[in-house]
Structures are given as structure tokens and as C-alpha cells.
Amino acid sequence: LALEGALRGALRNDQFELYFQPQVDLGSGRVVGTEALIRWRHPHLGTVRPDRFIALAEETGLIVPIGAWVLRTACRQNQHWQRAGFGPLRVGVNLSARQFSEPDLVQTVQRVLDETGLGADSLEIELTESMMMADVESAIDTMRCLKAMGVTLSIDDFGTGYSSLAYLKRFPVDVLKIDQSFVRDIVGSPDGAAMVDAIISLAHGLRMHVIAEGVETLAQLDYLRGCGCDEVQGHIYGRPGRVEDVEPLLRMGW
Ligand code: G
Ligand code: G
Ligand code: G
Ligand code: MN
Ligand code: NA
Question: Where in the numbering of this chain does the EAL domain appear (predicted)?
Fold first, then answer.
């Protein structure tokens, strides 16, 4: 309850911050995008991790204004980077279930793109399987509207939710993000390695790109490269960090 009260004041008191984590294209070795990840710094509670407050924000509906703030701040930052000459960059924004089912989501996204001047093709919206499965037809409608605007859509934490392959091919999605639990299993388990290989083949068969998450070791990186994985994100290239800490990574080639 104390947390809920504090969360109510967090936006007004300017306690949120976005961290960004680089995403590296394995073909070119360049950073081609970042994922925006929210952080909450409370003067007494300290840093509260999103795992602790996103669910609460969902239950209370606070996720709607907080989510709009995340979207606007991420788009503004990405547009700033592009204007500053960091090159073409995408920014990935996590949506929560409640935001995804808001009737005015599509207008909100359009308004944020208009306000910030960011090209729609520089925005990637991350959805989860469970969000899509809650109401499949309505989810497909919303996804089509976002696609029509030119926004890129990805499935986050792929493989951990429940969705059937029959639906996967119906979702107008551009990118699969392989969950870090699969990446962790690559080394040391032949089955784990086979799973990752299969997910990448499946995605490519459906003309989707693949981003592997939670990549920490060279062995994982080598295996992913061998499977034709398109992009990776993880501690090996950089943890989620503040703008000033991420900027040097954006210039780098690996
Ligand atoms: O960075 P990391 O520990 O902190 O993120 C933890 C979880 O919080 C992840 O599942 C991530 O998707 C989620 N998350 C981070 N930022 C946001 C956000 O802006 N909106 C939503 N809905 N979830 C977020
Ligand atoms: O659920 P989602 O994929 O949106 O959130 C990504 C989560 O993964 C965040 O909590 C982020 O901090 C975390 N993360 C990013 N890179 C790594 C990594 O290399 N290893 C681990 N263990 N976690 C990571
Ligand atoms: O290898 P090169 O000279 O391009 O490396 C440039 C910088 O990038 C160096 O600081 C190097 O340590 C770092 N670097 C190279 N490869 C990796 C990698 O796979 N992960 C991380 N985190 N840093 C790397
Ligand atoms: Mn994500
Ligand atoms: Na994920």
C-alpha cells in the first residue's frame, strides 16, 4: 500500500528514468538499436526494480500514464541521438497488457511520433505472447494498425509464454526476441542449443528477424552467430545504462 501511494506520486515528482541497452547487429557489428528499460528512484525506498512495480502499475491503471511517459521519453531520446549523428537507430519500448488493450493506444503512439518527430520505422514495440493471446482477433487488429503506421513489432520473451505456432504465423510481427532463459541453456545442454537453433529457423521461415537476449558469453555469441541470429542484446555488449553511459557504445563497432 505504501508502494502504491509512492507510485502515484512518482511521475509528478520526476522519479522515473529510462535506461537503454544496446542491440548489436551480428552482420555489421554495429549497434542498430537499444531497448528502453524503466527505472524508479524513490528518495526513501531507493531504486525500485520494474519487476516490483510494473505489476502494481498495471493493477492500479497507473501504467497508462507511466507507459505514455516511457514511450515519449524513449522516442525523444532516440530522435535526439539520430539528430546528433549517432546513425540510424531503433528504440524498443516494452508495452504492458493494460496499455496494449487501451482503445486509444494507436492514437497515443501516433501522437508521440508526431510530437517527437521520430520516424515510425525507428520505433519497435515489444509485446508478449500472453498479451496477444488474451484476445487474439483484437490483438491482430491493433497490431495491423501499428504496422500500417510503419512501427516495428516484436514478441518479447519468446518461448516462455503460451501461444501456439498456429497463431504465430497470423501475428503481423517483425521480430522474435529469444528469451534469455534459452540463451543461458545454449552451452552445456545439446537440447538447449537445439532449441535456439530451431527458434531461429522458425523465425526466419516466417520472415522474422531474431534478437537474442541475455547474451553474456563468447560461447553463446559464437553459437548464435553460427545459427544466423540477426542481433544480440546482453551484458557482453553492455548492461542497461544511463544515456551518458550508453552513448559511447552507440559509436562503437564490434
Ligand atoms: O531491466 P530489467 O530488470 O530491469 O526489466 C525487468 C522487467 O521489467 C522486464 O520484463 C521488462 O520487460 C520490464 N520493463 C522494463 N521497462 C519497462 C517499461 O517501460 N514498461 C513495461 N511495461 N515493462 C518494462
Ligand atoms: O523482459 P525483458 O526482455 O523486457 O527485459 C530484459 C531484462 O533482461 C531486463 O531485466 C534486463 O536488465 C535483463 N538483461 C539484459 N541483458 C542481460 C544479460 O546479459 N543477462 C541477464 N541475466 N539479464 C539481462
Ligand atoms: O575489438 P575492438 O578493438 O573493436 O574493441 C573495441 C572495444 O570494444 C574494446 O574496448 C573492446 O574491449 C570492446 N569489445 C570488443 N568485443 C567486445 C565484446 O564482445 N563485448 C564487449 N562488451 N566489449 C567488446
Ligand atoms: Mn523487453
Ligand atoms: Na525479454
Answer: 1-254
